[in-house]
Specification:
The complex is a heterodimer of chains A (about 110) and B (about 120).
Chain A lengths: L2 E3 L4 E5 L4 E3 L2 E3 L5 E7 L5 E7 L5 E3 L5 E5 L4 E6 L8 E8 L7 E2 L3 E6 L1
Parallel strand pairs in A: 2-12
Antiparallel strand pairs in A: 1-4, 3-9, 5-6, 5-10, 7-8, 8-9, 10-11, 10-12
Chain B lengths: L4 E3 L2 E4 L5 E6 L6 E7 L6 E7 L2 E4 L8 E4 L6 E5 L8 E8 L9 E2 L3 E5 L1
Parallel strand pairs in B: 2-11
Antiparallel strand pairs in B: 1-3, 3-8, 4-5, 4-9, 5-6, 7-8, 9-10, 9-11
The chains are: A mainly beta (about 110), B mainly beta (about 120).
Chain lengths: ~110, ~120
């Protein structure tokens, strides 16, 4: 069965500093890859997705992610974090030909002044 | 706003009662999904529909859980004889499964508390 690992439960970053959130997946073939963000009490908002092609994908709110096949990773990055980025971030995968998402446990991002 | 909507946003019930949640997808989306999210976890897939057909329901947590999408538009998720372990956020998502567009868009969720 496929699985998604987000090794960091919490991360604290100073406002204006760069951010990288890690995501690793376990699956034989390359799945479709997603990052979602969830603010307190809210549903999930899609930040970006990777299906194929260019391994560096751009998303909303200044986020980007890089797919590395050799490492089975899809890490999320942002060059300069804003206080409004404080939220929980979820990496998710979807097997090609299937329709359901498998999520990691999430990483809570805290932004310090 | 034409996003996914869910009703109610919060539900408090007593153990043993039945509850029903509603989800209205984005209007042109033909697929609708239900997920459950417990504290400290990512969402967990439960079931999904393509139009009115329920294509996957083996991941529903028990036979107390059922879902319908009778006219291929809104959907309901029912939990019978609720238990304290059913307390969670229930999320609905929709997608347009055409032309490779498989992104799922989520609603705000219904938070269930079972006393």
């Amino acid at each position: 069965a496929q699985s998604v690992t987000q090794p960091d439960i919490h991360i604290t970053v100073s406002e204006g500093a760069s951010l990288e959130l890690r995501c690793n997946y376990s699956y034989g073939a390359t799945p479709y890859l997603f990052w979602y963000v969830q603010s307190p009490g809210q549903g999930l908002q899609l930040l970006l997705k990777y299906f194929s092609g260019d391994t560096l994908v751009q998303g909303i709110k200044g986020f980007e992610a890089e797919f590395k096949r050799s490492q089975s990773s899809f890490n999320l990055r942002k060059p300069s974090v804003h206080w409004s980025d404080a939220a929980e971030y979820f990496c998710a995968v979807m097997r090609s030909g299937y329709s359901t998402l498998t999520f990691g446990k999430g990483t809570m991002l805290l932004v310090s002044p | 706003d034409t996003g996914v909507s869910q009703d109610p946003r919060h539900k408090i019930t007593k153990r043993g009662q039945n509850v029903t949640f509603r989800c209205d997808p984005i209007s042109e989306h033909n697929r609708l999904y239900w997920y459950r999210q417990t504290l400290g976890q990512g969402p967990e897939f439960l079931t999904y529909f393509q139009n009115e057909a329920q294509l996957e329901k083996s991941r529903l947590l028990s036979d107390r859980f059922s879902a319908e999408r009778p006219k291929g538009s809104f959907s309901t998720l029912e939990i019978q004889r609720t238990e304290q372990g059913d307390s969670a956020m229930y999320l609905c998502a929709s997608s347009l499964a055409l032309g490779g567009r498989i992104e799922q868009f989520f609603g705000p969720g219904t938070r269930l508390t079972v006393l």
